[in-house]
Structures are given as C-alpha cells and as structure tokens.
Amino acid sequence: MRTVSAGPKLEIQMLHDRVLVRLSPEEGERRSSGGIVIPATAQVARRLAWGDVLGVGNSVRNVKTGDRVLFNPDDQLEVEIQGEAHLVMRERDIHAVAMERTEHGTGLYL
C-alpha cells in the first residue's frame, strides 16, 4: 500500500490577465422586491454571480485582491483548492466591481 504524503504547501500565483475568484455563498430562497418568496429550485434566466477576488495576474489593471466582482459563472473554468471550488477567469469576463465610493458608478449599492 502506498501512502501519499502532503508535500510543501505551494502559493498560487496567477499569471497574465487571469483572476482567481471564490463564489459567494448562495442563499437558498430569495425574495422579490414585492416580498414574493422565490425557491432555490426555480428556473430563471441566466444569472450573473458575485464572488470575491483571491488573486490576480500581473497584467490585471482594474481588479485587485479582496474586490467583490460580478461575472457569469457558466463561462468560467472551475478549480478545487483545499476542497473548495474556485473559478479562474480573464479580467475582461468581469462585468462589475463593487466599491465603497466611486465618481463614475451607477448610483446603485449592494
């Protein structure tokens, strides 16, 4: 019987324009603005998702580690790190970044 020993822990460094994102935990049921409960199993149009940036490559210009970003999770590559699913995407696949204050934002807040 062969045992696999845990080797040294390696730090992940993203390359080029790649961004490593952890999906925000999904809430089961949602409520509409009118108070109607929408179950987690309800089929809706393709939904964008929010996630937290864990790492960025050296060519990424508008996103930094710790940002909360909006993206389409269906178009991304999934990787498992320490038993948790993460997504790898290009910076151009990010639709929005949530910020505390900005002069060029939408005026909408999370």
TrEMBL record:
Keyword entries, A-Z: Chaperone
UniProt KW Chaperone keyword: yes
Xref: CDD domains: cpn10
Pfam families named in the record: Cpn10
Gene Ontology terms, MF aspect: ATP binding; protein folding chaperone
Keyword match Chaperone: yes
Domain of life (superkingdom): Bacteria
UniProt-listed Gene3D superfamilies: GroES chaperonin
InterPro entries (alphabetical): Chaperonin_GroES (IPR020818), Chaperonin_GroES_sf (IPR037124), GroES-like_sf (IPR011032)
Role: Together with the chaperonin GroEL, plays an essential role in assisting protein folding. The GroEL-GroES system forms a nano-cage that allows encapsulation of the non-native substrate proteins and provides a physical environment optimized to promote and accelerate protein folding. GroES binds to the apical surface of the GroEL ring, thereby capping the opening of the GroEL channel.
Subunit composition and interactions: Heptamer of 7 subunits arranged in a ring.
Membership in a protein family: Belongs to the GroES chaperonin family.
Protein name: 10 kDa chaperonin
Organism whose genome encodes this protein: Amycolatopsis pretoriensis
